[in-house]
Amino acid sequence: MKSSSDGSGKRGCMWIFWALVALLILPCAGVFSIWASRQSRDGKFLRKMINDLKERGAPIDNETLLAQYRSRTDPSDAPAWQQVFAELKSTEFKEWCKGIELFDPTVEGTAWTDSSWTGEAAERNLIAKTVDLRRRIHELTMKRSAVQFLQDFNGIQTQLNEIQSMRDVQRLLSTEFQVAFADRDSKACLASIEAQLDLALVCREDPFMVSQLVNLAIRGIAMHNIQRAIEYDVLTEEDLVSLLDRMSSEELPLSRLSKMIAGERVIALEAAKNPLESGVFEEANKPMGSLGSIVGIPTNRDIIHLLEVFESMEDLNVSDIDQLRTLAASNDANLQSQISRAGLAQMDWILTSLMMPAFSALAEALVRDVVRERFIRHGLAIRIYQKRHGRFPENLEQLLDVGLDSRVAKPWGGKPFGYLNRDGEVVLWATIPQDGPITSDEPPEIEEESEESLRKWFHLRFRAPKQ
């Protein structure tokens, strides 16, 4: 009897043990089953999205992106550009650049007077030493061809050495402009400005956001130099008309948004296929330690979220800068709201949250470029009007006389640029797109050339022609 009782007790304990195990395993199995089912469903939807992209002819991986890039670029000028880059990196060139603020970070900011400036001797020496180099740069930029530099794409690890070298070319051309500007050499100023604008076109087909941001920076410096030439009345009427015609008909970087999206989308898809090799998640995973290699892998839903963001940006009317700013702000707000409500599902937003800040920065840079371009066109038109009529226009509506409709070419916010012609003071201004107010009714009180003022305002004070 005792052994039978002991056996029953042991069997009861085993039943209890397995019941407890089942209570632990079944919920986990249920959660895993739900997760696996969702991943499968999301995977089917993701494959459909990728197939739709493929049918539209959009790049979906490194190979198709490289093929598209090669079809839109010309490799014939690449060796000549590579020679230029090599000379700019040479020890001899670096020696020539000593004492020049644009090249030498140890030099303090430039101090200007009517007849000289800090670093003048060093800059004139550089220009004298680089006559042949600058001639070749001008010949290359005049072609306005999209040059094929990149031979291989590897997602986020793609090297962009050439686009970075373009910064040094821009610095040399800006030095060239400064010397011509100081000499009031209108022809040389125009040639340098046009070379700088053309330089921003050399890598225009690069499908990566960082390339286009560098192009925007190069273009921005060219615009700043045009503004100085307008402000101090260095250019002839013929030069001004030439630049206004060019800028009125030229394709803006904003219109290349779809190309940038194509490149970033491929980076995202490649990162999703090989998240640990891509390096995209390295920073995000650092706080997680060894778990990062697991938690940092994007889910199918994460990739779907990001592709939906790309799709919304592709549908933009690129002529509407307010729509672009609104969409960027809306995407940011929506992302933060979704993440805050996601709870444990925040894994579904890793890739999207890493990419969205870059898109917001790109949107602001593109809007700023459009507003700056419209601002410079107004400045050119005002100078043309002044040269033709012997006086400045009373209001911006009078610029119709020189072919500029200020009702169309507005800054962000729908309000026209600010303009004042009063008591001999002639000023054009606008706020730079940001979270602040739209253009004010009165010109801002700014400290000229200060970083804070340049960050907040486009501001052009028309100075009397130098006698």
Describe the structure.
- The chain is mostly helical.
- Among the domains are: 57-235, no CATH class; 263-279 and 288-363.
- The protein is built from 18 helices and 3 strands.
- It has a 3-stranded antiparallel sheet with strand order 1-2-3.
- Helix 3 (78-88) packs antiparallel against helix 6 (131-142) and helix 5 crosses helix 7.
- It is globular, with a radius of gyration of 29 Å.
- The N and C termini lie far apart (126 Å).
Quick structural summary:
With 467 residues, the protein is mainly alpha-helical. Helices cover 62% and strands 4% of the residues.
Q: Secondary-structure blueprint of this entry?
A:
Layout lengths: L1 H54 L6 H11 L5 H11 L2 H6 L23 H10 L1 H12 L18 H22 L3 H17 L6 H23 L5 H13 L7 H17 L1 H4 L3 H4 L6 H4 L4 H15 L6 H22 L7 H40 L28 E5 L2 E7 L19 H6 E5 L6
Antiparallel strand pairs: 1-2, 2-3
| Strand-residue proportion | under 5%
Shape descriptor: globular
How many DSSP H or I helices? 18
β-strand number = 3
Low-confidence stretches at least 5 residues in length (pLDDT < 50)?
Answer: 276-295
Main sheet strand line-up: 1-2-3
How far the N terminus sits from the C terminus, by CA atoms, comes to 126 Å
- Report the structural category: mainly alpha
Question: Helix fraction?
Answer: 55-70%
The SSE string, one letter per element, is HHHHHHHHHHHHHHHHHEEHE
